[in-house]
Specification:
264 residues; alpha+beta; 3-stranded antiparallel beta sheet; 7 helices; 7 strands
Length: 264
């Protein structure tokens, strides 16, 4: 009885998937467009179906065929960790073949063999860095717990992610919000900034500093616009902000990281 019920449930799931794939696409003008494959770009169900498909087409296959090769996958971005160039080429060829059987292919411009160069791997290779989930992984100078410097292959916020954050900060137009108080501005934007810090600051936090310092520069311009005594005195505005930051170091999320103006 349970087997019959399970089979029935699977049949209903497949029926719903088939309806999703065949449902016509409604345009903004109300017209319907018939489709014979795939899901519409931006569709809510697209990532669900894609992840379900990749789970069976890639994840489970990798665990069967290469049980000792670790990997990570987020949507259609995949990292596979191999111990040698020979193994890497063999696994990559197998992945290409597997995806081909599933009517998929690896992206020719985005698929690379990357050499994770560090203090123990001192050779050279064409690709020695890669981006994944907003981080750039590359050789970086690190310091051990004994204070000794060494080269470590580690992540930090990527240039692309940092640029997106700067654009977001710019879009806030902090310097034009002279009707707001400092407390208002902190309340409006702290949650977003703290989210960035929690995520991108998990590794090599100092790489975020140049990006988040932009918030302080906008606050200086805000003070110059809000208070006449600072209109042509950026240094005075900076010192004034620094004094407030010394009294209330937790007011802004970036102040908690020490990214605040000097108090004079």
């Amino acid at each position: 009885m349970r087997a019959v019920k399970k089979h029935t449930n699977v049949a209903w799931v497949l029926l719903y998937i088939e309806r999703w794939l065949k449902a016509p696409l409604q345009r903004e003008d109300g017209t319907l467009e018939e489709r014979d494959r795939g899901t519409p770009q931006g569709s809510v169900v697209s990532p669900v179906l894609a992840n379900t498909f990749m789970h069976h087409a890639f994840d489970e296959w990798m665990r069967r065929e290469f049980p000792h090769v670790p990997f990570e996958r987020y949507a259609d971005d995949v990292l596979v960790h191999c111990v040698s160039e020979k193994q890497t080429k063999f696994v990559l060829a197998a992945i290409r073949k597997r995806l081909g059987l599933c009517k998929l292919e690896v992206h020719p411009a985005k698929t690379h063999i990357v050499y994770c160069k560090d203090a123990d791997r001192t050779g050279s290779y064409e690709h020695e860095r890669f981006d994944f989930l907003g981080f750039t992984f590359r050789p970086r100078l690190s310091r051990s717990k004994w204070g000794k410097s060494f080269v470590n292959f580690s992540p930090a916020i990527s240039d692309k992610a940092a640029k997106a954050i700067r654009q977001e900060i710019r879009s806030w137009k902090l310097h034009l919000r002279s009707d707001k108080s400092l407390e208002d501005l902190a309340h409006m934007f702290n949650a977003v900034v703290q989210g960035w810090i929690n995520y991108y600051g998990r590794f090599y936090k100092s790489a975020m500093y140049p990006t988040l310092r932009g918030i302080e520069e906008y606050l200086v311009r805000w003070a110059q616009r809000k208070y006449k005594r600072f209109q042509r005195h950026g240094t005075r505005a900076r010192v004034w902000l620094g004094q407030i930051a010394r009294r209330e170091p937790r007011l802004f999320a970036h102040w908690r990281m020490g990214l605040r103006s000097p108090a004079g």
